[in-house]
Design goal:
By secondary structure, this protein is α+β, with helices and mostly antiparallel strands. It has four helices and four strands; from the N terminus they run H-E-E-E-H-H-E-H. A four-stranded mixed sheet has the order 1-2-4-3, with helices on both faces. Helix 2 packs across helix 4.
Length: about 120
């Protein structure tokens, strides 16, 4: 089954317990401009939940944080099939994407970084 290209509420990581588990026992990495943390557990079907964060520490203005968050969401939405379409493997994957650059990078950079992150996670499942 090919995943849809939408990002419904069910695919967003929002429960406090799941977020705590992700940051306490997840694996992390860095691909400019994102730091990412992910956690996978065996499940009967392939699913993914994602959390996007742009810290106020680097971008004080809300409109800039919103712009960067929107770019990350769009790039994830268009490329999530790289993570979900892994043949034969089933797992519930939680991913946190934290924008860690002080500059506002172009959308192409964000998309390429997200594609690499999703490929790295899919390989390690």
């Amino acid at each position: 089954m090919i995943p849809s290209r939408t990002l419904p509420r069910a695919e967003r990581l929002r429960t406090l317990g799941a977020i705590r588990r992700l940051f306490e026992s997840g694996e992390s990495g860095f691909v400019y401009p994102f730091r990412y943390v992910w956690f996978a557990e065996a499940d009967d079907r392939m699913s993914a939940e994602v959390l996007f964060s742009v810290p106020k520490k680097f971008h004080k203005r809300a409109n800039r944080r919103n712009l960067l968050r929107r770019r990350a969401k769009e790039a994830y939405r268009l490329n999530k099939r790289l993570l979900l379409a892994e043949g034969g493997k089933t797992a519930a994957v939680d991913v946190a994407l934290i924008y860690s650059s002080k500059e506002i990078v172009p959308y192409k950079t964000v998309e390429n970084a997200l594609r690499r992150i999703l490929q790295q996670i899919a390989e390690r499942l």
